């Protein structure tokens, strides 16, 4: 397990990218009892939305990786990752926490981590419906833990906490919600198709230029069924060193029901028998009109410089929702904030899921 975490904590593709990168992964727990160190586990899972329950058999890893030129190092580079491992899918909270801790840690090393761990040990447990104030490194992170009784699609309740917090808290709008619009921008016109593939639990590979893009896209895909939970396996970032590598690349049996995010071009060859492949480029900010990726026949997936696109032979049941696309494109032209665009998209996906649930 430790070895897997080490491999998953570094970008697998050769990217000359210097600077800091953040991404996340999900890891199957290896053997051992599935007991939880948390006493209230049952209570948390009963009160939390199904999409945010603690996982018994998987860990999430949240990574902050830094690569900078450094002549004192033998390889000429400083390359280090700080990883936070948790059973909770709180991607925003933990990535925000790493943004505070990691730069300090890279400068001051172990003593800094020890101080941070002492502070985190004092944090209250996550109770659905409560707003927590989490002090760390002279900052207070304020965040509300969603509850099962929240109305889906409503904006989070505005808190007015009477405590005088010094310093002013860093308020996170959500513990877990991604910028859906930014993630889905290159594939907006295929959003219905992607939703269908997720609903059917179809095997899908996301091929991306970096672990950041791959993990965000996989998390966006698995979150688009909310309030339903995506119950198949998913790996926001997956490398050839993974213990499940053989299981996923074998051609003797059908691919497992899993969404897997990869960056190594080697996977284009080893996974070309998978039925649905989504190839995405770098995610840009939503100022420019999205270059929409096309749907291509699977047979075209032979070369290593595969163009961005969705490679599948799948025929959708739903038609494209042109009014949604028009509203979002108008939003880009009017420079509408990404949060608003994401909210539109999230509401649309919620309505899709609800219209599917109603007859059942």
From TrEMBL:
<comment type="similarity">
    <text>Belongs to the DENND6 family.</text>
</comment>
<dbReference type="GO" id="GO:0055037">
    <property type="term" value="C:recycling endosome"/>
</dbReference>
<dbReference type="InterPro" id="IPR037516">
    <property type="entry name" value="Tripartite_DENN"/>
</dbReference>
<protein>
    <submittedName>
        <fullName>DEN6B protein</fullName>
    </submittedName>
</protein>
<dbReference type="GO" id="GO:0005085">
    <property type="term" value="F:guanyl-nucleotide exchange factor activity"/>
</dbReference>
<dbReference type="InterPro" id="IPR024224">
    <property type="entry name" value="DENND6"/>
</dbReference>
<feature type="domain" description="UDENN">
    <location>
        <begin position="1"/>
        <end position="360"/>
    </location>
</feature>
């Amino acid at each position: 397990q430790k070895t897997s975490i080490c491999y998953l904590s570094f970008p697998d593709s050769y990217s000359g990218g210097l600077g800091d990168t953040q991404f996340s992964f999900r890891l199957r727990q290896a053997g051992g009892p599935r007991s939880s160190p948390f006493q209230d586990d049952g209570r948390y899972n009963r009160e939390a939305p199904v999409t945010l329950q603690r996982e018994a058999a998987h860990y999430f890893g949240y990574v902050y990786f830094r690569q900078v030129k450094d002549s004192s190092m033998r390889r000429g580079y400083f390359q280090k990752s700080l990883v936070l491992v948790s059973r909770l899918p709180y991607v925003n909270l933990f990535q925000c926490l790493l943004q505070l801790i990691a730069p300090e840690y890279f400068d001051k090393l172990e003593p800094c981590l020890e101080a941070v761990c002492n502070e985190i040990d004092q944090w209250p447990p996550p109770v659905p419906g409560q707003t927590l104030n989490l002090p760390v490194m002279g900052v207070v992170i304020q965040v509300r833990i969603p509850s099962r009784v929240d109305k889906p699609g409503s904006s989070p309740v505005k808190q007015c906490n009477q405590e005088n917090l010094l310093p002013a808290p860093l308020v996170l709008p959500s513990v877990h919600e991604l910028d859906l619009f930014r993630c889905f921008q290159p594939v907006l016109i295929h959003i219905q198709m992607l939703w269908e593939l997720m609903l059917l639990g179809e095997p899908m590979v996301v091929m991306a230029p970096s672990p950041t893009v791959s993990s965000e896209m996989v998390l966006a895909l698995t979150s688009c069924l909310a309030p339903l939970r995506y119950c198949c396996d998913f790996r926001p970032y997956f490398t050839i060193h993974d213990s499940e590598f053989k299981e996923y690349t074998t051609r003797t049996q059908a691919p497992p029901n899993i969404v897997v995010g990869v960056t190594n071009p080697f996977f284009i060859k080893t996974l070309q028998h998978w039925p649905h492949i989504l190839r995405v480029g770098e995610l840009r900010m939503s100022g420019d009109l999205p270059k929409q990726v096309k749907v291509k026949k699977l047979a075209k997936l032979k070369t290593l410089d595969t163009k961005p696109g969705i490679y599948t032979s799948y025929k959708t049941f739903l038609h494209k929702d042109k009014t949604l696309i028009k509203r979002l494109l108008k939003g880009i032209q009017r420079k509408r904030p990404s949060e608003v665009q994401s909210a539109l998209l999230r509401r649309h996906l919620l309505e899709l899921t609800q219209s599917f649930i109603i007859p059942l």
